[in-house]
Amino acid sequence: MLHQHLPYLIPRLVTFGRHAVNLCYQMLHPVELGLYRLRVLVDRKSNLEDRPTRPVYRRLGGRRLPLLIHYHIFKNAGTSFEWALQRVFGDDYRAFDSSTPGGSISRRDIIKLLFRHPHLLAVSSHQAAPPAPRIRGRQVLTSILIRDPIARIRSIYAFERAQDASTPGALKAKELSFKDYVEWRLKTAPAMLCNYQVHFCTRSPKGSARPPDRARLEAAIANLDVIDIVGTVARYNEWITLAENILATAFPGTTLLSARRNTTAQASLPEVEIFEQLVTELGEETARYLVENNQLDMCLYQVADALLTRRLAERGVRLQLLQAYTAAQKI
Questions:
Q1: Which of 25, 111, 178, 217 is 20–30 Å from 158 (CA)?
Q2: In angstroms, what is the C-alpha Rg of the chain?
Q3: Which run of H or of E encompasses 160?
Q4: Angle ∠(37,38,40) on CA atoms, nearest 5
């Protein structure tokens, strides 16, 4: 007799099971949100002396929890930005690099990190490269700073000379003059001083021993174009204003301080003065070699500068023309 009723019982049992699962989810979801809010509130009460109060970040109405990924190019003001992120996000910020010098962080590595630490809201890495990963349940935002490649060379030397480390670069910087250090770098690791930023923006975990070419530049520009917060070190204050404007949309109440950290170079100099100093210290032949072998980075720098101007205008942030007319009205 029972087998005669099975065709009618099975669909009803399936429907009943589906309703039971939905009911459990509806009961557990508010509990999950409540626990998340409680953790954030506890975080807000801790370490108030070390950083400003962090805003409450919600995940309501199906909105994905935001995540910022900062691509930290060596000697491109990334430490200053990381300091600002640490003050805002506290334990929800993480610097993420492998223990291997020159190693790489893949998009899969970032996904695994977020799986283990789902509370993270901001990540910075020297070893990750764009484009960003897609992470289920997260709204991924990205940021990067590009620098005048010739100005960056002296900054690298000054940093490694002052660095308390036993890496080959730090040891050689303390041992050699600027001229000898540059010549040593060009012989042993030319990629550090030649079109490095194009290499950074297009590298893969498999790596490539070949110097960047025009195709790599086009790929780097394409990757910059999809990064949310793009700018240059020379316009750092404008860039961090854009970063604050974008992050405040994702994290209401966010305020980023623009204090500079880990800065070894003097204030930005005109390009003519930078080149003249380079010729004086390195000789005209080496100086010209560095300029010729950083043309791709110079193109990338110009694109980053244009993207910063565009993004500022798109969001109505620090409109220079408006500021000029406002100043004229006051006069």
A1: 217
A2: 25
A3: helix 149-162
A4: 65
Give the pLDDT confidence score for residue 29 in this predicted structure. 44
DSSP per-residue codes, 300-316? HHHHHHHHHHHHHHHTT
How many Å apart are CA 73 and CA 71, to the nearest integer? 6
Measured CA to CA, the distance from residue 160 to residue 12 in angstroms comes to 71
Give the Cα separation of 38 and 88 in Å (integer). Answer: 18
d(CA 240, CA 70): 12
DSSP class of residue 65?
E
Tally Cβ neighbours within 10 Å of residue 165: 12
Consecutive 10-residue averages of pLDDT for the chain (331 residues): 54 57 49 45 41 45 82 90 93 92 89 95 95 93 96 93 87 94 95 95 76 94 97 94 93 80 60 90 95 97 96 86 77 69
Comparing CA positions, the residue from 221, 240, 244 lying closest to residue 304 is: 221
Asked if the peptide bond before residue 131 counts as cis, ω within 30 degrees of 0, the response is yes
What six digits make up the tokens of 223? Answer: 């990757």
DSSP 32-47: HHHHHHHHHHHHHHSS
Q: The tokens of 63 are what?
A: 């909105």
How many helices (H) and strands (E) would you count in the chain? 13, 5
Give the side-chain half-sphere CA count within 13 A for 116.
6
pTM of the model: 0.78
Torsion of CA 37, 42, 46, 52, to 10 degrees: 20
Q: How far apart are CA 235 and CA 146, in angstroms?
A: 10
